[in-house]
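Progress against Task 2.4 (sequence-to-structure conversion) is shown through the following example record, which the project officer requested during the mid-term review.
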Amino acid sequence: MNTKRFLFAATIFAIVALVLAACGGGSAPEPLNITLHALDIKFDVATIEAKVGQTVNVTYVNDGALDHTFIIEGLVTEQKITAGQTITFSFTPTTAGTFQYYCNVPGHKEAGMVGTLTVNP
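Structure tokens generated for the chain above:
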């Protein structure tokens, strides 16, 4: 009789494990790959959406004649890029919320070189 109970319990455990695995079981979301072009005094992408724990891979292309940067305070350190240059960098948001990204070259943020990152739970 104990063998039947053991097999029943083992079967239930296996089914629960399979269901949890199929639901993702808390795994991280797939990485988000974006290309962001810096034009003179604007970004070509004004909004980015990501999830908490999602790695965001950025290919940052400077199509302008001026130098530019990319920064998200508390999340992405300043990434500098010269005219004609392309760089890549990654970050992973750990909290939900809305964050501003901008170019930190004097006058560029004030001229409107900003965007919004929305991080969903």
